[in-house]
Write a structure and sequence with these properties.
The protein is α+β, with helices and mostly antiparallel strands. The strands form nine sheets. Strands 12, 13, 15 and 18 form a four-stranded antiparallel β-sheet that branches. Helix 2 packs antiparallel against helix 4. The termini are far apart. 11% of the residues are buried. This is Band 7 domain-containing protein.
């Protein structure tokens, strides 16, 4: 009750005692006798934002900024300030729009600033994601996002409980490099490409290990780094719009008891090899000493024979021959 001042830049609803409301835009001074006055909250969106407005009649509008709006509850149900979506290069959004009874899909690629219209919504990707405590272990619905990156990427994965031909269980550690080629193919044929790749590479590893014993598997691991060894992975990735560029073999892990036995065998082989090399060097040194000693003995026993002819004077040139036997010096 009394006079009220609505300043410039403000708006208010004045309700009468009968419940009817009137919008008052400032600057203005009004007198309220038996009713009440309600100042309207003001919402502002800058150039990187938009206003999500829901009207009482069911309409919905997204008004891009810069924009100012007063929440008149006689007409508007709710007002929210939303941030626009900034897309970097090599990022994209999948946008759906309902129009005239059917739904259309389009791909928005960056770099750009995207503001959805009132009848549009974004596709939400729900993929397998790496575990926070173990990057090589993946969990369902572990990676939920809206912006899809087209930059080539990679992930670690350990294929666990792989059984060799002689029933030895091991874990094979891999690193997969992949690249998105066709977005529409991916959207049409899979909802989780990471899960598809994991299942395909696991199948390839199980098939390879089942044909080899544990010892052969450890000796011949070069094939694990060749793409030809992963036919199911490469074919499945190509089918869902991806390309596998490389698979890196990072090693293996055996059960603790088997690994301890294997480590002891490796240490024993290394020790024997070192002893063999040391013995070979010792034998070579002994042979060298014997050979040199033999050469010295041979030289010391070498005898040289010399014939000396002496002419005696005043003996009618009588020639006498003496033979000298001795060691050459």
């Amino acid at each position: 009750m009394g006079y009220h001042t609505i300043k410039e830049g403000e708006q208010a609803l004045v309700f009468s005692s009968g419940g009817s409301g009137t919008l008052v835009v400032g600057p203005r001074r009004v007198y309220v006798l038996r009713g009440e006055i309600e100042f309207l909250p003001r919402y502002v969106a800058d150039q990187n934002q938009y206003l999500e407005v829901k009207y009482r009649d069911g309409r919905k509008e997204n008004e891009p900024g810069p924009k100012e709006l007063f929440h008149n509850r006689l007409e508007i149900e709710s007002v929210r300030v939303r941030d626009s979506i900034k897309l970097d290069a090599n990022h994209l959004l999948v946008v759906y729009k309902q129009e005239e009874g059917h739904i259309e899909r389009r791909v928005v690629e960056g770099p750009t600033v995207f503001i959805p219209s009132a009848h549009e919504w974004l596709h939400e990707f729900t993929w397998h994601g790496s575990h926070p405590n173990d990057p090589s272990r993946f969990t369902p619905k572990g990676n939920i996002f809206q912006q899809l990156c087209r930059v080539p990427s990679q992930f670690y994965y350990n294929v666990r409980d792989v059984r060799t031909k002689n029933d030895t269980l091991i874990t094979v550690k891999l690193m997969l490099f992949y690249e998105l080629v066709d977005v529409n193919t991916m959207l049409n044929l899979t909802h989780d490409p990471i899960a598809d790749m994991i299942n395909a590479v696991s199948s390839d590893i199980v098939s390879l290990a089942s044909q080899r014993t544990y010892e052969v598997f450890l000796q011949d691991t070069a094939y694990l780094g060749a793409l030809e060894s992963y036919p199911q992975l490469t074919s499945r990735a190509e089918r869902i719009g991806y390309r596998i560029s490389k698979v890196v073999y990072r090693g293996y892990q055996a059960p603790q008891r088997l690994q301890a036995t294997h480590d002891e065998a490796i240490q024993s082989r290394v020790h024997l090899k070192l002893m063999s090399e040391s013995e070979e060097q010792t034998q070579a040194l002994e042979e060298f000493k014997l050979r040199r000693e033999k050469e010295r003995i041979k030289l010391s026993k070498c005898i040289s024979y010399s014939t000396l002819t002496i002419f005696m004077p005043n003996t009618c040139n009588i020639q006498r021959t003496y033979t000298y036997t001795g060691q050459l010096t």
